[in-house]
Structure formats: C-alpha cells, structure tokens
Design goal:
Layout (H helix, E strand, L loop, with lengths): L4 E3 L9 E3 L6 H15 L11 H8 L3 H13 L3 E4 L3 E4 L39 H4 L4 H7 L17 H14 L14 H14 L9 E4 L2 H12 L5 E6 L3 H9 L3 E8 L2 E2 L1 H8 L4 E4 L13 H14 L2 E6 L23 E6 L11 E4 L5 H11 L5 H12 L2 H28 L4 E3 L6 E5 L5 H9 L6 E2 L12 E5 L5 H16 L5
Helix pairs in contact: 1-3, 2-3, 6-13, 7-13, 8-9, 8-12, 14-16
C-alpha cells in the first residue's frame, strides 16, 4: 500500500511528517516528531508552535489527534500554553535556549524511541572493566545450538512430566495467602531436609539441613560463594581446560584467574602450587571433570585438601552430573573427606531433572552459613517457593530416585552407541576421554581445526563444541565435547557419520 505523507510548511523545522496507514497512530507520530525536534534542538526554547487548528489543516487530518498529542506534550512539560501567546516550547527546553548550534540528535522511530548514542561519542557510557572482560552471552547460545550432540541437554522425552504436573497441581490447590510472602532465604525446609538426606547416602556428603542453601542453579551458587569468601584481587585456581562460564563469576568478582592443568588424575595440585601457592580458592569438578570427564584421584583429593588447610584457602566443589556413572557406584564427594570445613559443595538439578527448573543447592560449612546468608540476601532475597515445594514432594515420594535409576540405562545405551560409532567412523585408535560418567564425553583429535569444524557442523545440525575453547593456558588440545543425553542412538550414528565426513573434507570443499 502506498502511504500518503504530508508535511507542515510552516515555521516548524524540522518538518512534522505523518504516514497515514502506519502502525503508529497519528497522535503518536505527531507527539514523537515534536519531542524529537525539541530534544534535538531544532525547536528553540520559548518558540511558538502552530495552533492545533492550523497544524491539523496543514496535515490534512482531523483536529482530534493533534489536540491529543499537544495535551500529552503539555502534560510532560515539553510545551507550555500561555494566554495571549498561544502554545510555546517550554523555556527550559529547546536547542537555542543557551545559544549556539543545537546538538545533533539521534533519529527517532515512529513511536518516539531514539537510537543509542554513537560508540565513539559515548566513552562516558562505558561498562565496568570487569563487565567488559566477561564472555559474550551470545557465545553461550551459539554453543547450545540445537542438533545432535548438544552438551548439557537431557533426554526430555523420558522425564515423568505427568507426575510433575500432578504434584504441581496439588501444590497449587494447597496455595494460600501466606505462601505469597518471601520465603526462607536458605530455601524451603522440607526440600533442604530431603536434599541433605540424599547427599549423605548417595554422595557421602557430611551435612545437615541447616547447611543446605537452595539456589537458582549452580551458577548462582558459585556467585554466592564468591561473594561470601573472595575479595577483588584474590587469586583463584581454575581447571584448565574447565567450565567456561565459571570464569564469568570470578572475573565479575574482580579475582585473578590462575589456570591449572588437568591430566588423567584431575587437577594437578602440584602445578597449582608452583603457579600460585597462595591462591585464595580453587574450583574443581572432581567426580566428573568438565569437559574432559576424568575423575580426580584419591591422592590428588588429599593433596588439594592439604593445600586448602595449610594456605587457608577454599575449595568450591562443583558436582554437576555424578549421579550417572556407568561402572560401579558414584564417586564419593570431595566434601566428605574434608575435616577442616574448607569445601563448599555445589550441586544442581539441571542435569538430573531439567534445566529450566533452575534449582541447585550449596552445602556450606556451618560457621559460614551467616556469611552466605548475607551474600544471598544482597543478591535476590531467596528462591521462589512453588517449584521448591513441587521438587520436595518429587523427592520425598521417591520419584527422584526412580527417575535416576530409570535414566541410567538410557544414557548408558546412548553412551555406548556414541563410543561404538566414533570407533567405527574415526578409527579404533581415536582418543575418547571422560566416558565413565555423566552425559557427555570428549574426543581428542590432535591437529583438528575444531573451531572451524564446529561452524561447518552447525550448518548440518551438529553441535560439535570445540574442545580448544575450554583452555586458558598452554597445552591446548583440539577435539570436541559431545553430549549424548538428548541424542537418540539412531541420531548418534548418523551424526558421527557426518562428523567423519566433515573431518575428511577440507574447508571450502
């Protein structure tokens, strides 16, 4: 449709333009044009503007939208109405009020919105150095592209959704006015009791409900721990390679990151001592290292605990998916070996149940609970109540334990299919690491341009997360981190075939 455009040929400059048939009303267009002209300096302070009757005639429209636009501009203080002088621009506004050339203004949208100022002219609008150092959130979503081998995704189709809906409906029926108030910042008592009992029996964690804090996922748990225990300038050991988004927490806290190499026994504690013996904290994933999947040996665990006690350091133990182990029982937690209260244990339900639940937990040394509460209260006052109540019922009624038992053979089948396909299509000698637990493994491919293959694979619905992106220091290895939790066996076989073809085909081929 061709839109009719009329302009005011009066003393108003720049001219007011309207588009009949626009998605924005005539009133909104007139208001936006005047507001832009006043803020941008095209209309001077105390400058007279046309009467509503004259402007309506110039625009060829009824007087009503003009009157409504003027009324809004008057109410917001852009215009003033004076007896004998008509309607003028507010004396406190307008580009000519102080003399000189009016400042340039960004072009408005039809609704009055304005573009942000140009970057080169807005150095005073810069973000903090800590925020500027954070990785882009866009990179996170790129790495979570859909398709075969998506990392950290579960088998959604096997979650007992009907049971979850029933429990949620029951909680909604029980809802009463008192539940609408803030809850306990430590979390729902019933859920904390259930988690403490589970951790004592399944993970060997030494705790009682008073030490358990419910958080909105393990990332927030780590954020609270950093706020409670670390100061800007503190040195922190991070596994190298390691969980990329943990870096965001420590960078945001103003800490200095010290990459510490990971080998077949987990974090190399002696290497960490050589690099920075006086570090304030260490983040480890001892039961199933991310991304390599190795298990920290008993000797390394004891070395790490000795280091923390001797240096007065803290250990943040991220135990994100150790429920799924395919040989023997799950590895006992590092926290269970701690006799000096140096370990903060972090767990999540994202990998066991589903990511959007956004519930995790901390196990805090007893003498630090008040400090963690203060940090938590400053962050978000506490977790939401309804999802906690549903999860508490889910655990208490045995659905949680049954779900884990049911999922282990499903994930084991997918893991087996992935390993078999990798050996079939990439060769029997391909190096596969981290396949003893969890819902991902890593395949090491020396000399492979993994980042370039990742980009090409995304076009074919393959989520081939490059292994190299997880490294901070030297000794970078190439390959891929492949998730199998949300990828069915048939899709796994087809995906590995396509991966093999990509590896054989040069870029641009």
């Amino acid at each position: 449709m061709i839109r009719s455009v009329r302009k005011v040929a009066s003393t108003i400059s720049p001219l007011v333009a309207i588009e009949k048939g626009s998605a924005h009303s005539l009133q909104a267009q007139i208001y936006a044009a005047f507001r832009h002209a006043i803020i941008g300096g095209a209309l001077a302070a105390s400058q007279r503007v046309p009467s509503t009757r004259v402007l309506a005639a110039e625009l060829g429209i009824s007087r009503m939208p003009v009157m409504n636009a003027y009324a809004q501009l008057l109410a917001e203080g852009y215009l003033e109405s004076r007896v004998g002088s008509g309607t003028i621009v507010s004396p406190q506004l307008g580009g000519a009020a102080g003399g000189g050339t009016p400042p340039a203004a960004p072009a408005p949208g039809p609704d009055g919105s304005e573009a942000p100022p140009a970057r080169d002219a807005a150095s005073h609008r810069r973000a903090s150095r800590r925020c500027a150092a954070l990785p882009s959130a866009e990179s996170f979503y790129r790495m979570r592209s859909q398709g075969a081998f998506t990392v950290s995704q579960i088998a959604f189709e096997h979650f007992p959704l009907a049971i979850w809906k029933r429990l949620m409906t029951r909680q909604l029926r029980r809802l009463h006015a008192a539940v609408l108030d803030y809850g306990d910042p430590m979390g729902l008592h019933e859920l904390r009791v259930a988690i403490a009992a589970y951790l004592r029996t399944a993970r060997g964690v030494r705790c009682d409900p008073g030490q358990v804090m419910i958080v909105n996922g393990s990332q927030q748990g780590l954020e609270i721990a950093a706020r409670a225990l670390l100061d800007p300038g503190d040195d922190v050991w991070l596994e190298d390679p390691g969980y990329r988004f943990a870096r965001s927490v420590f960078v945001g806290s103003g800490c200095n990151i010290v990459p510490v190499a990971v080998d077949g026994e987990g974090l190399d504690v002696r290497a960490g001592v050589r690099e920075c013996a006086g570090a304030r904290a260490a983040l480890v994933t001892p039961s199933h290292q991310y991304p390599l999947g190795v298990t920290m040996s008993a000797s390394r665990r004891l070395q790490l605990l000795d280091w923390a006690e001797s240096q007065g350091g803290w250990i943040f133990e991220d135990d994100f998916d150790s429920e799924f182990r395919y040989a023997g029982v799950p590895i006992t937690s590092l926290q269970g070996l701690d006799r000096h209260g140096r370990v903060v244990y972090i767990g999540t339900f994202s990998k066991v149940l589903f990511p959007s639940l956004r519930l995790g937990y901390l196990v805090v040394p007893p003498d630090l609970v008040e400090r963690f509460l203060a940090a938590r209260f400053a962050l978000d006052l506490g977790p939401a109540s309804l999802s906690q109540a549903v999860l508490a019922d889910f655990v208490a009624e045995g659905h949680f334990a049954r779900h884990i038992r049911r999922m282990r053979p499903i994930y084991a089948e997918r893991r087996g299919a992935l390993i078999a396909s990798l050996r079939r299509h990439l060769g029997a000698g391909v190096e596969i690491v981290g396949d003893q637990a969890g819902i991902h493994l890593a395949v090491v491919l020396p000399g492979c341009p993994d980042r370039e293959i990742y980009v090409r694979g995304a076009r074919e619905q393959l989520c081939l997360v490059p292994l190299s992106v997880f490294y901070l220091g030297s000794g970078v290895r190439q390959g891929f981190v492949l998730g199998f939790g949300s990828t069915a066996p048939a899709q796994i076989a087809a995906g590995v075939r396509r991966l093999a073809e990509l590896l054989r085909t040069p870029a641009g081929g």
